[in-house]
Amino acid sequence: LMTDPVPRPDFASDNTAGICPEALRALLAANAGRMASYGNDELTRQACARIRALFDTDCDVFFVFNGTAANALALATLCQSYHGSVCHELAHVETDECGAPEFFSKGTKLLPVGGAGGKIEPAALEAIVTRRSDLHFPKPKALTISQATELGTVYRLDELRALGAAAHRLGLRLHMDGARFANALVTLGAAPADLTWRAGVDVLSLGGTKLGMPVGEAVVFFDRELAADFPWRCKQAGQLASKMRFLAAPWLGVLQDDAWLHHAAHANAMALRLAQGLRVLPGVSLMQPVEANAVFVLLPPEALLALRSAGWIFYTFIGVGGARFVCAWDTTEAQVDELIAAVGAALLSG
Predict the structure, then answer these.
(1) Does pTM top 0.90 for this prediction?
(2) What is the chain's percent helix, strand, coil content, to nearest 5?
(3) N-terminal to C-terminal alpha carbon distance within the chain
(4) CA nearest 167: which of 107, 137, 124, 110?
(5) What is the DSSP string of 206-217?
(6) What are phi and psi of 239, to 5 degrees?
(7) How far is C-alpha 104 from the geometric centre of its chain's CA atoms?
(8) Which distant-in-sequence residues (6+ apart) come within 8 Å of 49 by Cβ?
(9) What is the predicted pLDDT for the residue at 250?
(10) pLDDT at residue 322, rounded to an integer
(11) What per-residue string of b and e applies to 226-259 under the rule 16 or more CB within 10 Å gives b?
């Protein structure tokens, strides 16, 4: 008789994790009574103030439902329809957002470039920006980078500063997709301001969902002038929550007592534990340095099939034969060790 695979811990994405306790408590507290709508409530004001304090600057803060909206609306704010946005060829805006950046900007073209480890080098940026200046090619106007990157690597402080300086010298605005910003932050041990506006970042999509919140991202404009019309853009795109307090309140929970950093540090530690356990197995090789909460490994096709047949859930969309395993705030050491043992067994069976 055929039986379904035994359910296994899900390592496909940190999106599959539940709500962390701090966010859940804040969400439940926000449900105690009535409050003003459309962001005119005290919890939303407090959350914005907390994020301003976090980045040590008077930034403008908006809450939207998801990362695609955060990225697409931010880039649409920076560009006109005839402009271009430079991105890495593996960036989420290029590979996984269904043309949303182009749609919301009414046609701004993404200009993908390569780069080791999912990172863009200043030389590559300059090459694509200066390649053409005629009217038949989109005028480059923005650079968007991911921190941490789609390959689980992080831009170091010197890399960020060099890239920010190059972008501004070339007349570009700099957007950062920070879906896993917290994971990069704890890896580098730097101040949030140093990884953003002090390095030249103009707009940040600050990730909350992958951090353990139920839903919602923050769009942070370090240059307030850029955000002048952003409320209307959010409304038109269906991103203005009528009960905004439920998007804002979880931020108060996760930012209290650095809970967000503790959760990110735990996820990173679980990824490192997984990498250390996998790299010693015969037939396994790491595809990228483990610098955040994702592990990319090269496995034989037979082993990948055996793992999936046993009920393990993961992605293989990066690299030929490569598997991505993502750890989250709630990943346990026991789950990591179970996966390591499963990979070992799959290698033997293959």
Answers:
(1) yes
(2) 45, 15, 40
(3) 23
(4) 124
(5) E--GGGT-SS-E
(6) -110, 5
(7) 19
(8) none
(9) 98
(10) 85
(11) bbeebeebbeebebbbeebbbbbbbbbbbbeeeb
